[in-house]
């Protein structure tokens, strides 16, 4: 097949718009989408300092490359932040990939580990908390602590905004999952743009939210970008996997479904955000000082639970760092 733009050999067919793309025009199309998203929501302003959260996985690494490219024409500062959760045989490898990519692009790179800032690794947490029926899933600790530590890092490094690698598929999956759980309030908090809701909470931006996952993988492959494609050993989110499969099936049958769902979310977002805005009144956590709706933030609550369980079981471990 031939590129719909220039007639050269095509490497990709975008079913949702019925167009073929050669390597060059595919790159252009992905980059244009990211630029348009950034512009539409004014995600980055000239001269701002942007922290990009890079795990080493495809989305975050491609995001870092795209931001580095954009920075050449539109001046802003860029630093990379990697959270090392302490997952043996998985995160150690992806941290190295993140590091190599940052080096290649000449971007200042900072690694923040659960070990240093929470006091223990995710592996240690799972070991202390015991079998699955006695604790929440590993992803719950991981997600809460990662968000907490990213915010900590962003504040420490003085970044204005934190760019995260969520793509179109992630965004639409999240939309449907929250609808199906009846958690509409949450939809009003994560949306397409992020207003400053608390001075201690660094705003997050999602420049890849209009790029399908498939296109991110292909962008990495075509441009020889080193990414980690392995899966975390704790990843067992069955519900999300079902939604993902169903969405892919719908997209196959009705090309453009994912974009239509995203548009629906974007239209609903201002209404939902307005309705639930009152619920956002945030305080400072009594233990760590980070913003929280209650008295003690979820990250500190989890940490206290693990310390308590370790004490009961007589497991000795050294807590470094204080959240
Ligand atoms: Fe953390 Fe779960 Fe993601 Fe693994 S799959 S990195 S445990 S959130
Ligand atoms: Zn706290």
UniProtKB/TrEMBL annotation:
This is N-type ATP pyrophosphatase superfamily protein. The keyword Nucleotidyltransferase does not apply. One of its GO terms (molecular function) is 4 iron, 4 sulfur cluster binding. Keywords: 4Fe-4S, ATP-binding, Iron, Iron-sulfur, Magnesium, Metal-binding, Nucleotide-binding, Transferase, Zinc. GO terms for cellular component: cytosolic tRNA wobble base thiouridylase complex. Residues 50-228 form the tRNA(Ile)-lysidine/2-thiocytidine synthase N-terminal domain. Transmembrane segments: none annotated. Zn(2+) 2 binds at residues 285, 288, 297, 300. ATP binds at residues 53-55, 59, 83, 165, 170. The keyword Iron-sulfur applies. GO terms for biological process: tRNA wobble position uridine thiolation. Zn(2+) 1 binds at residues 3, 6, 22, 25. Its cofactor is Mg(2+); [4Fe-4S] cluster. Residues 2-27 form the 2-thiouridine synthetase TtuA-like N-terminal LIM domain.
């Amino acid at each position: 097949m031939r590129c719909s733009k220039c007639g050269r050999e095509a490497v990709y067919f975008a079913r949702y718009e019925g167009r073929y793309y050669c390597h060059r025009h595919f790159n252009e199309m992905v980059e244009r989408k990211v630029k348009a998203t950034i512009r539409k929501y004014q995600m980055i302003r000239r001269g701002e300092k942007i922290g990009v959260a890079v795990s080493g996985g495809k989305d975050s690494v491609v995001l870092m490359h795209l931001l580095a490219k954009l920075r050449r024409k539109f001046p802003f500062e860029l630093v990379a932040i990697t959270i090392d959760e302490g997952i043996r045989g998985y995160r150690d490898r992806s941290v190295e990939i993140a590091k190599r990519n940052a080096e290649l692009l000449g971007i200042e790179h900072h690694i923040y580990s659960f070990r240093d800032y929470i006091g223990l690794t995710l592996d240690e947490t799972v070991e202390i908390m015991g079998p699955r029926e006695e604790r929440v899933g590993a992803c719950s600790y991981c997600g809460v602590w990662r968000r907490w530590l990213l915010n900590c890092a962003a504040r420490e490094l003085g970044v204005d905004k934190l760019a995260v690698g969520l793509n179109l598929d992630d965004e639409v999956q999240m939309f449907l999952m929250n609808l199906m759980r009846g958690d509409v309030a949450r939809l009003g908090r994560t949306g397409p743009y992020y207003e400053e809701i608390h001075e201690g909470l660094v705003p997050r931006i999602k420049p890849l939210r209009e790029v399908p996952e498939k296109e991110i993988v292909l962008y990495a492959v075509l441009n020889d970008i080193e990414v980690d494609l392995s899966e975390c050993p704790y990843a067992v989110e069955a519900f999300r996997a079902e939604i993902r499969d169903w969405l892919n099936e719908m997209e196959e049958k009705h090309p453009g479904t994912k974009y239509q769902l995203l548009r629906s979310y974007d239209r609903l977002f201002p209404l939902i955000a307005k309705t639930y805005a009152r619920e956002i009144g945030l305080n400072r956590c009594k233990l760590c000082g980070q913003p929280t709706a209650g008295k003690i933030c979820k990250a500190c609550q989890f940490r206290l639970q693990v310390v308590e369980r370790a004490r009961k079981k007589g497991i000795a471990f050294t807590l470094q760092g204080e959240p």
